[in-house]
Structures are given as C-alpha cells and as structure tokens.
Amino acid sequence: MTKWGDRPHWAFDGVLLGSDRHGDWLGFRAGTPMARPGLAITATNDQVGLVPRAGAWLATFHGEGGPVATYVDMTTEPVWDGSVVRAVDLDLDVIRLLDGSVVVDDEDEFEEHRVALGYPPEVVALARETCDRVRQAVADGEPPFDGIAHLDWLQRL
After folding, report:
1. How far apart are CA 101 and CA 18, in angstroms?
2. DSSP assignments along 30-53, one per residue
3. What is the mean predicted confidence (pLDDT) over 118-124?
4. What is the pLDDT of residue 109?
5. Residue 87, C-beta contacts closer than 8 angstroms, at least 6 positions apart
6. Which of 122, 69, 136 is nearest to 99 (CA)?
7. Is the peptide bond before 144 cis (omega within 30 degrees of 0)?
C-alpha cells in the first residue's frame, strides 16, 4: 500500500490461497515481516487477507492470538499488478475488536490528510461511503465479515 501522493506505506509478502465469491484470499503466517516507513514488525499470529472482487477496501482477518478479530483498511480500489496487490490507504479503518465491538479508527488522520495531502472530493466521498458500508456490514456480521467466511482460508494457510 501507499499513501496519497505515492508515498510508501505497508509492504509485506503473502501467499495466494485462492479465490471465492468474495474475492482473492492471501495468507500471512505468524513470523511474517511487515514494514512501513519508520516501523518494522513481525506478525505474531496467522492472518488472512481479502482483496474484494469489488470495493475500495482491504480486509485482514486474524487467527488465534491476534490483537483484533478483523481489520479493514479503506483504500482506493485494489488492483493486481502481476503478483502484487496495490492500493492507496485512505486512513479510515473499520475494526472488530476481540470483544465483538466495532469501531472506526483514524478519522482524525483522515481529516488531517484530506486537507494536507489534498484528497480530491471524489476520493473523500469514496472513503467515507465505503467506511459507512463496511462498518455496517462488519457490525451486522454480513459475509465476508461474519466470522465464518475466512475460517477455511485460515485453515488452508
């Protein structure tokens, strides 16, 4: 992922696990190095990511021991570039915490970057509308955010 203006952001390797009606599933094993400018971490638990068939988001579903259950980044529409998924992170995140509650994170960062980085109005609208839809889908437990759709993919990993 990059940030607006082609600024580097998260980069890490995953394993393509397969596809279903929701999109393409990627696996990230515990121990996977993940880096962005100024921060390098190592995944402490297995995770699967979903690149949706349609939509401006990327989701990560954490396996046992994860810090959260589900983490969804609002992005530009992700695209495959060979074996690399590319998207611009638009700051807003929808998170299902381990207790089942759902929060929207980084709204302040979104507002700051909207002005400082000059997000075009259509990008602002895309991020906000997508965030609202995804938050509701996660809260309502709609697939693929139902706590079930990702389990087979985690098992395959």
Report:
1. 29
2. TT-EEEETTEEEE--S-EEEEEES
3. 97
4. 95
5. 1, 2, 56, 58, 73, 75, 76, 77, 78, 79
6. 69
7. yes
Which pair of tokens denotes residue 55? 């939509």
Return the SS3 of 14. coil
Annotate 12-29 with b (16+ C-beta within 10 A) or e (fewer): bebeebeeeebbbbbbbe
- pLDDT tens-digit map of 16-59: 999 999 999 999 999 999 999 999 999 999 999 999 999 999 99
For every residue of 78-92, DSSP letters joined together read PEEETTEEE-BEEEE
Contact 66, 30 (CB under 8 A): no
Say if residues 58 and 78 touch (Cβ distance below 8 Å). Answer: yes
* Residue 88 bridge partners (DSSP): 2
8 A C-beta contact, residue 72 and residue 62: no
- Name the average pLDDT for the chain: 97
Alpha carbon distance 136, 129 (integer Å): 11
Question: Domains of the chain, with CATH numbers?
Answer: 2-152 (2.40.380.10)
